[in-house]
């Protein structure tokens, strides 16, 4: 049923598929960023549990990598928004 609604919306206008693709792309970027940051946090907690004396270095590296992942996800979301608003 949902597929029929999406196909009908896409058939009504030529820009429908582009907007649909942009929405799916933004969603995938958000899901990927969430999964990546979750894995980083889990791995950092494991590393700190194994070597508590290295907690400072692990946290610093974790924050830097998480910031880079967030930047890539934000870039992807902005590109998807630009695609959807350009049409």
Entry summary:
With 87 residues, this protein is mainly alpha-helical.
Explain what the structure shows.
- With 87 residues, this protein is mainly α.
- It has a domain of 37 residues.
- The chain is 90% helix and 0% strand.
- It has three helices and no strands.
- The longest helix is centred in the middle third of the chain and has 35 residues.
- The protein starts with a helix and ends with a helix.
- The model has no long low-confidence stretch (mean pLDDT 87).
Keywords:
ion transport; cell inner membrane; ATP synthase subunit c; 0% strand; mainly alpha; elongated; lipid binding; cell membrane
Helix and strand topology:
Elements: H1 2-12, H2 16-50, H3 55-86
- Terminal CA distance: 26 Å
> In sequence order, what are the helices and strands, one letter per element?
HHH
Number of helices: 3
**Shape type:** elongated
Structural class: mainly alpha
- On the 0 to 100 scale, the average pLDDT is 87
Total strand count, please?
Answer: 0
Q: Which residues sit in consecutive blocks of at least 5 with pLDDT less than 50?
A: none
